[in-house]
Amino acid sequence: GMKVKRVKKAKKTLAFFVHAFGFREPYQVLVDGTFCHAAAKCKMTIKELIPNYLSGDVALYSTRCVLSELEALGEEFVPAKMLCKRLESRKCHHHKPIGATECIQSLIGEKNNLHFVLATQDPNLKALAGQVPGVPVLSIFHSVLVLERPSEKSLAVAEEGKAAKVSLTATDRAKLDKLTEKKDDQSVAIRRRRKPKGPNPLSVKKKQKPAPGAPQARGSTPGTPRATPA
Prior knowledge:
Number of strands: 6
Shape: globular
Structural class: alpha/beta
Strand order of the largest sheet: 3-2-1-4-5-6
């Protein structure tokens, strides 16, 4: 019962990120040290449990920076370090390791273009991820996996429809291009139809003030005889 409910809830949350932000399988899960520590403590087999919980193929990643931070933390974090070592290392281009939080932030960037699911227990990192639209957060709560509800920022961006263009497939994009093309043709046609007939009103205005002694412009004053050509 509970497990089925949790998986259904996670599926619904993930569907939001799929439709609003273009997430696709295999879901790329970026794992930090705090998550490795929590998983190791409750002996969680994340390589099996995460794909089951997210109902899809998953690629689990960590970074050299995360690993080196765990290595520096000593005895208590050895199981976490062992777990982290077994994950695929995502290239972060930090030749000299930096703090794990900064490293993860640099990979997610301002828009999470690479569609990472962030696996962390760190409230500070969760808050930072919440400022970036389209970052699903996965954590461990009482020894079970929890995919947190989308942040206010993600919900607002999805609502505005700004994310729609991110999730368009090539076919949708082609369809949209065709639709906008047609619209443009129509607006050109409308503009053509609306063109005023006859002379430009500005040029008429100029002609209404004839220079002294010059013949009057045609039909400038009602009732006056037209100037006959010389």
